[in-house]
Design the sequence.
């Protein structure tokens, strides 16, 4: 099995920056959430919206580790990437990265999410409609961080 990363190009916007003109750190979490939604959209015909609204499956975060390596400025072009470090019964450990077009790692997050019923708000096994396509994104070993 060949693993791959889910990637999207992104230009850092004015609305994502603080008065110093660099990304205000909470905005990375918004960007990574948008990336996860787009990833789910790419894997399932019905998309993220249907997963929430119709299937009533949620994917809340239960643990996040963040490393800020280098600043991103308004106007920078970056690549946002997502890989799966581990798939459990009801949890998923993701490696999310923001890398500048210059190859410099700007920021990375290791995030654990769980699949839940949006009716009971209890954990449920990862549904097959997610588990099966997620297998393509399992990374054998996390890439080493760039300094």
Sequence:
């Amino acid at each position: 099995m060949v693993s791959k990363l889910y990637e999207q190009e992104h230009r850092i916007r004015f609305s994502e920056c603080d008065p110093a003109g660099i990304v205000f750190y909470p905005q990375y979490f918004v960007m990574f959430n948008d990336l996860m939604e787009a990833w789910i959209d790419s894997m399932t015909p019905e998309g993220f919206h249907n997963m929430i609204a119709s299937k009533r499956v949620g994917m809340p975060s239960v643990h996040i580790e963040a490393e800020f390596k280098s600043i991103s400025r308004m106007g920078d072009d970056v690549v946002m990437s997502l890989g799966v470090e581990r798939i459990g019964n009801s949890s998923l450990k993701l490696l999310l990265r923001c890398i500048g077009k210059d190859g410099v790692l700007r920021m990375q997050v290791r995030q654990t999410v769980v699949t839940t019923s949006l009716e009971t708000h209890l954990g449920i096994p990862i549904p097959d409609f997610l588990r099966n396509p997620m297998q393509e994104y399992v990374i054998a070993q996390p890439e080493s961080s760039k300094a």
